[in-house]
From TrEMBL:
Record's bilayer topology term: Multi-pass membrane protein
GO cellular component, one term: plasma membrane
Transmembrane segments: 16-36, 43-64, 76-95, 102-122, 128-149, 161-179, 185-208
Family the UniProt entry places it in: Belongs to the UPF0126 family.
Pfam families: Gly_transporter (PF03458)
The keyword Nuclease is annotated on this UniProt entry: no
Subcellular location, principal: membrane
Species of provenance: Eilatimonas milleporae
Protein name: Putative membrane protein YeiH
Alphabetic keyword roster: Cell membrane, Membrane, Transmembrane, Transmembrane helix
Length: 213
């Protein structure tokens, strides 16, 4: 999950970004909660697992960047995660039946988090390399922790296009900012690009090549 962009980056779109940001937290939290439900965990376990994808990537990013951790500054994402965990615990059959919808919502959350994370890192360090790395970490690390704790093969280590989409979004944002494209335009173009890459993977079954045998 990514911290809200500063006002100077999003201007009049700040409220919309904050809303989408919390939507991404909610969807990522549901992905963690459903993984815990499938492992027959109790409600405490479901809540803890929900936190990993919702705030794990952003937490790691902020620790590495040595800035205040976003959910300590503003606890709203934590409360949103708790709500998602409770909903998932009691309504898991309904959510599982809408799994296709959640996959697309997750794709949007991944794209948004990767770009917001890259933007925060770029502001903090001025390094394109660090910004791209932190953008990818923001989008995928929480899900990796979720999968490891649930004893599943992390999604980013499978052949499915996932982390590549985060890389595309973060890289595009840094490129556009380097070309002095307006910041809110850079944001939305990059989110759209990352979402498109992920969508191609979902619709066409694309994957990265494996080494020759």
């Amino acid at each position: 999950m990514a911290e809200r962009f500063p006002t100077r980056i999003c201007g009049v779109t700040l409220d919309l970004i904050a809303l989408f940001d919390l939507f991404g937290v909610f969807v990522f939290a549901i992905s963690g909660a459903l993984a815990a439900v499938r492992k027959d965990m109790d409600i405490f376990g479901v809540t803890m697992i929900a936190l990993f994808p919702a705030v794990g990537g952003g937490t790691l990013r902020d620790i590495i960047l040595d800035v205040p951790v976003f959910w300590v500054v503003d606890t709203t994402p934590v409360w949103v995660t708790f709500a998602a965990a409770v909903i998932s615990f009691f309504l898991s059959p309904l959510l599982e039946s809408r799994l296709r919808v959640l996959i697309w919502a997750d794709a949007f959350g991944l794209a948004l988090f990767a770009v917001l994370g890259a933007g925060k890192a770029l502001d903090a360090t001025g390094s394109v390399l660090i910004a791209v790395m932190m953008g990818v970490a923001t989008g995928v690390v929480g899900g990796m922790i979720r999968d490891v704790v649930c004893n599943d093969l992390p999604l980013v280590l499978r052949r499915e296009i996932y982390a590549t989409a985060a890389f595309a979004g973060a890289g595009t944002f840094c490129l556009l900012r380097g070309l002095n494209v307006q910041e809110d335009i850079s944001l939305w173009v990059s989110v759209a690009g990352a979402f498109a890459v992920r969508a191609a993977g979902i619709l066409l079954g694309l994957s990265l090549p494996r080494p020759p045998r």
